[in-house]
Design a protein that fits this description.
Layout: E1 6-8, E2 10-20, E3 30-31, E4 40-44, E5 50-58, E6 61-70, E7 77-82, E8 87-88, E9 99-106
Parallel strand pairs: 1-9
Antiparallel strand pairs: 2-6, 3-8, 4-7, 5-6, 7-9
Length: 108
């Protein structure tokens, strides 16, 4: 899963992330054409933030809005996790697996 590199901590954090499934032999497949909100969780420093609008741009790309009071701890990450059930058509062996996009949180 390809996401963004780093964001700034803020009490009024609000950012939209673009997540892309790589197209290679080890891909998770493609995003299902359905409401994917129930398949997305926020973890790490994103725990407790609000998952806003989620848009399926294409079979290999989604955008995810995250907002709230984002605090920073040096060297820690927020994570946008996509459950295996959000994917279809994963190559064998193994099929789809949970995908995680890590975002480094920094202070300015």
């Amino acid at each position: 899963m390809v996401g963004t590199g780093s964001v700034n901590a803020s009490s009024s954090f609000n950012q939209t992330f673009t997540l892309t499934v790589p197209t290679n032999p080890y891909s998770a497949g493609t995003f299902k054409d359905t409401n994917l909100t129930n398949y997305i969780t926020l973890e790490g420093l994103f725990t407790g933030l609000t998952l806003g609008t989620l848009t399926r741009v294409s079979s290999t790309e989604i955008t995810v809005e995250v907002s709230g009071n984002l605090i920073s701890q040096t060297g820690y990450y927020g994570e946008i996790c996509v459950a295996a059930e959000a994917f279809e058509g994963a190559p064998e062996p193994g099929g789809a697996v949970r995908q995680v996009a890590q975002v480094r949180v920094i202070n300015l």
